[in-house]
Design a protein that fits this description.
Elements: H1 2-5, H2 11-22, H3 25-37, H4 41-69, H5 73-80, H6 84-127, H7 130-136, H8 141-160, H9 163-189, H10 195-203, H11 213-226, H12 233-238, H13 247-278, H14 296-307, H15 310-346, H16 350-370, H17 372-402, H18 405-413, H19 423-448
């Protein structure tokens, strides 16, 4: 079954694909925005704690379920289930993750389209096409529809080509380039006036804010969103991993890469925000709240590139091209979840399933675009801050309470024979069984109270 479904050809292929799924707008756009909105360093501190203490164990649960099941999210969860009631619960959780992935992609495609539009704006400026440049960054429905459709078309094309020739090939080529450009931009930004104030805001936490309910729920949502948890993505990606791979090591590597990229993104955007502030760009309201909100990256970075003179146009072009590509490595993973379900559960040919799923999600995107003032934030919050953590928590319930312990350890031992004597096995099973579900539930209850 693995051969006919496709499989990652190497450990690097999976790590780059999983990191590509994680590293995208969730890191470059979402993390700095959430950081700036929620008190800077206090949010960073809480995010790092939740990423390693809650997101990583949940991540391990999802990829282990996927590799064991060697199938789409619903089927993999059903294979773990032993009773009819458990199988019904498995369908709800698995299908809920697929719906969550579709909802995320519906608004994600809009944001990614904006990234693409700014790349076009820079390119048009270079060749002197002023009218095209102005239209590309105009706040119009036509512009939003066009670039969202272009981005979804690219996503569909890659997924139609399958695992090895689509997902893995693109991820392995594009992720290193993204990391390299981020580091170069950070080095440049830190030499500018005002960057030191941004560094202080980013790295010096106000401890009194770490238990703020809004901050907690935002940090939890960001941690799960950036690791693509609760969307069926990591279950299906896990199903494409060879049985010979050490899952404990792979999970740790992907989590570390994801958190590192998020941290680097903040190290770029937050100081850049203060650099722009130093240059007269209004960032904060009189009460100290952030003005830009979700559009922070599109206001701050263009101002930074403008300050670089002629060179800034080319740097801006490179940055937004790579941002579009990083977004693409995330969007393909989100589309793969529902596509794999249709292919394996309903015997629909992959190219047909991919095309029609892409059209359906694009239709939802169009509805959001026509009601962007209210629906964009609503869908994003519903899917990333509530839907994802709940589905990921239920995957932990499956791994901790429904999956038989002997079967679980046998799965982990494939690729890691000595796992029973490691610290991971001494902690992770009971941690996933008790701590993760209770901690996630506690954060939700705290936020509602």
């Amino acid at each position: 079954m693995g051969a006919s479904r496709g499989e990652f050809t190497s450990r690097l292929g999976f790590i780059m694909a999983a990191a590509g799924s994680a590293v995208g707008l969730g890191n470059i756009w979402g993390f700095p925005t959430q950081t700036a909105t929620n008190g800077g360093a206090a949010f960073v501190l809480v995010y790092l704690i939740l990423a390693f203490c809650l997101a990583y164990p949940a991540f391990m649960a999802e990829i282990l379920i996927g590799r064991y099941g060697q199938a789409n999210a619903v089927t993999s969860l059903e294979k773990i289930s032993r009773t009819q009631m458990q199988k019904r619960f498995a369908f709800i959780v698995g299908f809920g993750g697929i719906v969550c992935a579709a909802l995320i992609l519906s608004f994600y495609g809009i944001l990614a389209g904006w990234m693409t539009s700014y790349a076009v704006e820079s390119g048009a400026t270079i060749i002197g096409a002023t009218s095209v440049a102005e239209w590309a960054v105009s706040d119009s429905i036509a512009r939003n529809i066009f670039f969202c459709a272009v981005f979804m078309f690219l996503t569909v094309i890659i997924i139609r080509n399958g695992v090895e020739d689509g997902i893995e090939k693109w991820s392995k080529r594009l992720m290193p380039a993204m990391i390299g450009l981020l580091i170069l931009l950070i080095i440049y930004v830190l030499t500018l006036d005002g960057a030191d104030k941004g560094l202080e805001a980013y790295l010096n936490p106000d401890i009194s804010r770490v238990l703020d309910p809004d901050l907690l729920i935002s940090a939890l949502g960001q941690a799960f969103f950036s690791l693509s948890l609760g969307t069926s993505v990591m279950v299906i990606y896990g199903s494409y991993i060879s049985k010979k791979e050490n899952m404990v090591t792979i999970g740790a590597q992907v989590t570390f890469i994801d958190v590192s990229i998020a941290f680097l993104a903040g190290l770029l955007v937050i100081p850049a925000m203060y650099v722009a502030l130093e240059q007269g760009v209004q960032i904060f309201a009189e009460d100290g709240s952030l003005l830009a909100g979700p559009t922070l990256v599109f206001q701050v970075l263009p101002s930074l590139f403008d300050s670089m003179g002629q060179l800034g146009v080319f740097v801006g072009l490179a940055f937004f091209i790579l941002m579009s590509i990083a977004a693409l490595t995330s969007s393909i993973s989100m589309l793969e979840g529902p596509v794999s379900f249709l292919v394996e559960r309903h015997n629909i040919e992959r190219k047909t399933a991919t095309t029609w799923t892409g059209i359906g999600i694009l239709a939802i995107s169009f509805v959001i675009i026509f009601n962007i003032g209210t629906m964009l934030d609503f869908v994003a919050t519903l899917a990333t801050e509530y839907g994802q953590p709940i589905i990921a928590m239920l995957c932990c319930v499956f791994a901790g309470w429904i999956w038989q312990r002997n079967s679980l350890i046998e799965e982990i031992k494939q690729g890691n024979e000595q796992v029973e004597s490691t610290l991971f096995w001494k902690i992770w099973p009971w941690y996933t069984k008790f701590v993760c579900p209770l901690a996630i539930a506690a954060v939700f209850i705290h936020s509602f109270i």
